[in-house]
Amino acid sequence: MICPHCQKEVPDDARACGYCGHWLAGEHKAPAGHPEQKPVESSSSPPWLWLALAAVILVIAAGVIAYFALKNGEEVPPDPPQTLATVDLEATVAAAVAATKQAEATPAQPEQEPVEALEPGPTPVPPTATPMPRPTNPPRSTNTPRPPTSTSAPKSTNTPRPTPTPTATIDADPTVYDNFNNPAFDGSFNQNQWEIWGPLPYEIVQRDGIVTVTHEGKLNEGTFLVLRKFKNVVLNTSTFFETKLKMEPTKNSGWVFLWIDFSYSTAKGIAACRINENNDAFCEYVDFSSRWDSRYETEYKPVGDGQFHKFRIDVDPITMTFTYYLDGQIFGSYMPTDADKFKNRVSFTPSIGVANWTWNSTAAIVGYFDDVRTGPVVQ
Fold first, then answer.
1. Are residues 101 and 245 in the same domain?
2. Longest Cα pair distance anywhere in the chain, in angstroms?
3. Helix crossing, 89-105 with 47-71: angle to 10°?
4. 89 lies in the same domain as 186
5. pLDDT band for position 115 (cuts 50, 70, 90)
6. Which of 275, 292, 277, 295 is nearest to 352 (CA)?
7. Same-domain status, 309 and 201
8. 354 and 270: one domain?
9. I need a labelling partner for 32 at 20 to 30 A (CA). Which of 52, 144, 270, 356 fits?
């Protein structure tokens, strides 16, 4: 049977609901002296309900104490299906009704927060010690073969492999014009970077990070490698041109040099640094507008036989001042007295090379070059 008031399930022969105290209309009539109860407001619980719950809890507690007294020290079997404790509902309800009348005669107390009716829970079961599982030995490894983790490479065949293409070596220094390290040009030279001036015969070969220039001893001639990107360039800021060079130690007459031509209309000149067949290093300024006129020369400084030396020429196009360096040290400086005819209008063409201009030998001249650089002068 379902209580029409609180919707709880109660025994079919119950006279009143054991949860809310409602007399079950239609099945039983209220006894004399006990008028039928009106529905209880859901906002508050009647005092007699607490008395009924206390009676139930006392019965459950008595059962638990008896349970432990009988089963102390023994293994607890599985709990049988739980049943609700039997309570004398008529006596309980009668007591609750009397308490309710007494409460109505008492002055009204402030309304309290509604408390939800507690449902009787299952009988608590004392905790029992759970036996710990004994450790078991891990299964021993078997000789089951593992699957292969890599695929074996196919057997080599007689098919010829393609020849790898050489890759260029990129220098992190933006001032490097050519360091001759690109293996793609070994055996020749980079013609996108360089232009040849001079008559045949000559030989220009890049190998092992060095370019070798050979002039076949033609008297009063030379072989020039011109920096193609700076051919006839008009400079608007101070710029340097630098290279490492050395001469073949054969004592053949000739020069190996860093050379800068400049010209405007009929005005022409040269700024150059050289090593001669006596292994003397020197720099100079020459005006050859009408003839070869050597205007300035540094000292002749002996250098090692067949050793690399670094030459640098700084060009100031505003003042037409040329500053010369040997192995990182200032070697000299010159500004021509007639610089006004060149200022802000002259074009420059830098180059490296070898020449036989000593007038007394036709033997071959061989020069070696490395690390050609150019860029703005940093003050």
1. no
2. 157
3. 140
4. no
5. very low
6. 275
7. yes
8. yes
9. 52
**What is the average pLDDT across 102-126?**
50
Do 230 and 97 have their domain in common? no
322 and 197 belong to one structural domain:
yes
CATH code of the domain containing 233: 2.60.120.200
Average pLDDT of span 57-74: 74
Return d(Cα 278, Cα 276) in angstroms, integer: 5
The confidence band for 130, taking pLDDT boundaries of 50, 70 and 90, is very low
- How many CB atoms sit inside 10 A of residue 42's CB? 12
What does pLDDT average to over the chain?
A: 76
Token pair recorded at residue 116: 């939800």
> Exposure of 180 by Cβ count < 10 A (0-12 exposed, 13-18 middle, 19+ buried)?
buried
Shared domain check, 183 and 92:
no
Structure confidence by residue, pLDDT tens digits, 279-334: 899 999 999 888 889 999 999 999 977 899 999 999 999 999 999 999 999 999 99
Distances (CA, A) of 222 to 78, 83, 219, 290: 115, 122, 8, 21
Number of domains forming the structure of the chain: 2
**Region label for 214, one of left (φ > 0), alpha (ψ between -120 and 50) or beta (otherwise):** beta
**Structural domain range at position 27:** 1-75+85-106+120-125
The band of 40, judged by pLDDT with boundaries at 50, 70 and 90, is: very low
C-alpha of 216 from chain center: 56
Are residues 221 and 361 located together in one domain of the fold?
yes
Is residue 372 domain-resident?
yes
Region of 123 (left: φ > 0; alpha: ψ -120 to 50; beta: rest) is beta
CA 6 from centroid of its chain's CA atoms:
68
CB-based contact 267:286 (threshold 8 Å): no
| pLDDT score of 332 | 97
